[in-house]
Amino acid sequence: MKKFLSLTLSVVMILGLVACATKQAQTSSASAENSSAKLVMCTNAEFPPYEYKDGGEFMGIDVECAKLIGEKLGVEVEILDIAFDSLIPTVMSGKADFAMAGMTVTEDRKENVDFSHTYQKAVQTIVVPVNSTIETVDDMYGKKIGVQTGTTGDIYCSDDFGEESMERYSKIVDGFQAMKTGKIDAVVVDDQVAKAIVAQDETSFKILETAYAEEEYAIAVKKGNTELLNKINTVIDEIKSNGELKSIVDKYIK
Ligand code: ARG
Q: Distance between CA atoms of 124 and 74, rounded to whole angstroms?
């Protein structure tokens, strides 16, 4: 009787072990699936209202759109906050799945990454001190111009006004600070960002009426990653047509 019991016990134990092992195998394959169910987005969170940090939390239009894209694709989106001029190399190396950073589609960038459908229009604008004599683009020749390194503002101004005019900053707010202390004469930056920053300091700065350049934003993925690009495009098309994108934008741009 005793022998039978211990035999049954060991059978039960063995069965238990087998069950346990299969269970473990299941959970580990499930977690492998989960880990691929994550997309890494790189951005440069120095760009309100598109991406910025508020009390340690990532906020902004791009951040919310990326989360919505993740939700619709059933994946988690992890944010990697890096320098703007590292975004494209980081996507190219595969360290991030996509870059979303108020990034303008340009022909040069298209040589290194693939762009999604566009989701926002933007204008490169000129911001000057309230008492500035600069009124038009032509007045900028021979002046010191502040830009964020590697942005379209940087690229266009370097072309138009020459290297000697350029003052580059890793964060555009530092350019505004330099302009406030008289170190530079103008800042060239995307319109909504200009508005957001100037709104905090209207007694110091004004935005010129003349648009310097018109552009469109899109998400960048590694060249040839059509699988991800198609998925992203489907969501962008959907949230553009059903109003979800607009309601995110309206939260940030009044
Ligand atoms: N639209 C400009 C560009 O693509 C500036 C973008 C800057 N974005 C940022 N998150 N800092 O070059």
A: 35
- The Cα–Cα gap between 242 and 11 comes to 59
Residue 36 pLDDT: 62
Distance 63 CA to ligand 1 centre (A): 14
Mutate to test the pocket of ligand 1, among 98, 152, 212 (most ligand atoms within 8 A of CB): 152
Q: How big is the chain, counted in residues?
A: 254
pLDDT for 140 beyond 90: yes
Ligand 1: which residue has its CA nearest to atom 5?
A: 151
Ligand 1 midpoint to CA 30 (Å): 37
Best of 79, 190, 197 for a ligand 1 pocket test (most atoms within 8 Å of beta carbon): 190
Angle 191-199/172-180 helices, nearest 10 degrees?
50
Per DSSP, the three-state class of 24 is helix
Domains of the chain, first to last? 36-119+218-252 (3.40.190.10), 122-214 (3.40.190.10)
pLDDT at residue number 16: 45
Q: For residue range 178-194, what is the model confidence (pLDDT) as tens digits?
A: 999 999 999 999 999 99
**CA–CA separation, 250 and 254 (whole Å):** 6
173-182 mean pLDDT: 98
